[in-house]
Amino acid sequence: MSLDEQALVARARNGDVAAFERLIAAYEKKVFNLAYRLCGDREDAADLAQEALVRVYRALGSFREKAQFSTWLYRIVVNVCLDFRRSRGRRQVLSLDAPLDGDDGQMPRQTEAGGPDPAAEVERRELHRQVHRAIMQLNSEHRTVLVMRDIQDLSYEEIAAVLGVALGTVKSRLNRARHALKAELQRMELSPAHRVYRGSQGVLKGEGP
Amino acid sequence: MRCGKIRDLLSEYIDGRLSPKVRAEIDKHLAVCADCAAELEFLKNTVQMVRELPEAEPPEDFHGQLHMRLAKAEAERRSAPADTRTGFGAWMRGLLRRPALRGALAGVMVLVLVFSVAKYALPGWDGNVWTLLRGGPALVTGFKEPVDDPGSSRGTGELTTSGGEGTAPQPGSGKAGQDLAAAPQVPGATGNLGALGGDQIIYSATLTIEVEEFEPAGRQLEAIVTDAGGYVEQSSVSLDGTTKSGYYRVRVPQAAYAATIGKLEELGRVLRREQATEDVTGTVIDLEARISNLRRQELRLGELLSQAKTLDEILRVENELNRIRYQIEANEGQLKYLRDRVAMSSITVNLSEPKEPGPTPVPGADLWRRIWRAFVETWRGIGGFLEELVVFVASVVPVVLLLAALWLGYRRWRSSRGARGAGL
Q: Are the beta carbons of A105 and B49 separated by less than 8 Å?
């Protein structure tokens, strides 16, 4: 934690809400995305992300400076989201009518230089919708590691710290999660083998700085 | 490496987390195994598709709502009493948040509840579970004692029997507290009145009896004693406030001893009964032997006196004769006294009227005493309850420990099996 963050934490502990908002400004979007990919619904995700951040604020007094602030924050978000799903039982949260990616407020990660081809854009959005749906089919254990690794781009070590599990557990869980997702995509006849990537990243980068 | 093992490592392979050596091995395998190569391609595409998902934008009012909720949380925090944030309240809440402690607390409450119900259902139970298992239903039915029963050791008075001092074993003697309501000690069949050859036993008793009214009870007592052929040896009456009490020492023939006690006890409520026996057979035989000896000496001295010649001789023999006669009288007196005690048993009866509630209570006058008494009684009640609760817990603890050990063992066994099953 940087000195700047430490100072903000100290001020937030004394009841300075503005300091807390500055502290979490950098995480707000990540927190929302984590909640969104874990619970599947934008409305719920906004509510859960706010709930988690309020809890972080309340619990700031018990935050140990030794711990990584982001790790601690993510842990609370994950717990809030899993509790929410658990309280809803195994009911499928995602409905077919619910507005999905791209319907509102969706910013494409990269836009192609010459302006998108409308047909390709529609196809791309439909694909995102399907992938999101496939992720929601995973069990919560698998979904959590997969989202943290491949959407939040956390390292194995960070994931282990957030979940409080051993590194080996993260490895095996992520491996199973990816295989499960692959199977799900194949079941949805979005067999990854038949897709040719048009994104700018032709080759997957390895993890690292 | 086999395909299964390879596939377990593909995820890490994609993330570039494998050592160069393992990576090279996998590369080697992928070059020759088309299935695994295809699998890698699938997996890579899957990961890529997830990574291609655009970052979602929070709703526009996200920050505004968050701000409001934070402000609300801060306001709540400020208005909350200090002790819920720090100190005892926070500590208690922290404790209650821990599932293990919550479970323990619930367990303790269940224990206390079970104990209370059991205690209520089983008056007289000492709190130990095992006495229940051993004693069974006898405990349930056999413990309620009527308070008014004079034979009960829990009656209002103290009822004791002091065993006989003599050597002759008597029915009922020496078994204090037992069979008190049963017939009093009965003179043995050999205790013939005045019979020189039989056992010489002195019976005596002390009774404390509460009667409704002193005067008629006293008259009745005298009638009972006279009817039995006895007499009142000594009596005294005293007045304390409005309640009269007194004591009578009566003598009745030994043969009427038991019957008289029985009649006397019908006068009122027996608060106390003491009985004693004294075997004086040995003493009586000794005295008789000594007396007959002395009589022989007296006879011989009488002969000597008739043969005495000088005045000096006469005086010396007469002196000796006087001494012997004095001894004979003393011994005979003692023998007579003992025979009388054997022939006429003595019974001391304390009669008393019940204590009146006292003068009309002035309101508030004894309030402090009543408060104090209520406090002490409740305190004692709680103390007794807690004492038995501790006994109860102590009797249950070994079972709980055993169950806990079994449960922990089971959990460990299951989790180790689960870990192996998951391939970890």
A: no
